[in-house]
Amino acid sequence: MFSFILRRLGVMVLTMFCLSFVVFFFVNLEPNLTKLATFQTESRATDAEKAAWLERNGYRDNFFVRYARWVGLAQKQPVKDPSSGEIVPRFRYCDESDKATFSGVLQGDFGCSTAYRTTVNARMPEALAATGILMFWVMIVMVPVALLIGVLAGMKEGSRLDRTLSVVSIGSTATPEYVSGVIFSVVFASWLGWLNGSAATALSRGITFTNFTLPVMTMAIYGIGYIARMTRASMAEVMTAQYIRTARLKGLNFRTVVLRHALRNALIAPFTVIMLQFPWLLTGVVVTESIFNYKGFGYLLVQAASNNDIDLVLACGLVAVALVLITQLISDIGYAFLNPRIRVS
């Protein structure tokens, strides 16, 4: 198992390197660089002045050199004014070094956010913490409800209860966040007035049932149906297995058969699906946080993309890739522990 984890970690590092290269390439396309130069120079700056700004700040250097600087494998050179010879930081509000230094992702420096006029390191942790709180409560609500629905439906395959729960599961899975979020806001915030249609106060005044229920419901409703369907299919398959029939013939009551023999084996497949919900939640928060004005990772990513904040977009992409790879590793390890028949080699 230890050698398997080491190999997977090596593959994860290689995958992150390749994906970060792809993300860096697309983010640094010419239209994005032109917009960046426009935002950082005067509104009446000529094309020649914009080109000079890009040249002076290293955006016209070799692509691989710029990538190595961002990663931290090459030194970042201080920027000098060609006329006066004085050192002029690329972005004055980020207190960049006036000496040649290795300062990149490997050194923990993710660059400067032009949208928020501060370092990415100062802005990213706050957004990730806010989204982490949201994801925690979504999982607390989503997983138990989904497993309960799936187990109840799979225990009585073909029954009226199974058909009813299956229709509910399919309906919830077919409803995307931008639809359910609007519906919940209209019904519970506008019409009934029970809940707050904005979650902005959750960060400033604290999380309450009123201001946090709608975003949690919006994200959980989609995942509940998907996990429930997978649990139902797995439970229905296990209930027809030979060892379940043998247990019933031995005189064990139905509850004991389900809890001791069927449930553990039925949860093997849903466990993988549950772990894969973390990357989905990270992308799902983009829509949900924008709808409910919750300033987490998704809201940060939208603002970074809207304002052509290159360093912040790169950092968000790197975080998303890391989360996907880590959850897949945990899923593989957990799958091997849940199913003794699987051996890693």
Structure, described:
With 345 residues, the chain is mainly alpha-helical. It has two domains: 2-109, no CATH class; 125-338, MetI-like (MetI-like fold). It is 69% helix and 1% strand. It is built from 15 helices and two strands. It has helices spanning 2-27, 30-40, 47-56, 63-71, 120-155, 160-173, 177-191, 201-204, 209-239, 242-249, 254-266, 268-275, 277-291, 297-306, 310-338; strands at residues 112-113, 118-119. Strand 1 (112-113) and strand 2 form a beta hairpin. The longest helix has 36 residues, at 120-155. The mean pLDDT is 83.
Can I get a quick summary?
By secondary structure, this protein is mostly helical. Helices cover 69% and strands 1% of the residues. The protein has 15 helices and two strands.
Question: Roughly how many Å apart are the termini?
Answer: 7 Å
Number of helices: 15
Q: In percent, how helical is the residue content?
A: 55-70%
Taking the sheet with the most strands, its summary is: 2 strands, antiparallel
| Strand count | 2
Classify the secondary structure makeup into a structural class: mainly alpha
CATH topology of the largest domain: MetI-like fold
**Beta-strand residue percentage:** under 5%
Average of pLDDT: 83
Q: List the uncertain runs.
A: none
Tell me the CATH architecture of the largest domain.
Orthogonal Bundle
As laid out across the biggest beta sheet, the strand order is 1-2
Shape: elongated
Number of separate domains: 2
**CATH fourth-tier homologous superfamily of the largest domain:** MetI-like
Instruction: Round the Cα radius of gyration to an integer and report it.
Output: 25 Å
CATH top level of the largest domain is Mainly Alpha
Order of helices and strands: HHHHEEHHHHHHHHHHH
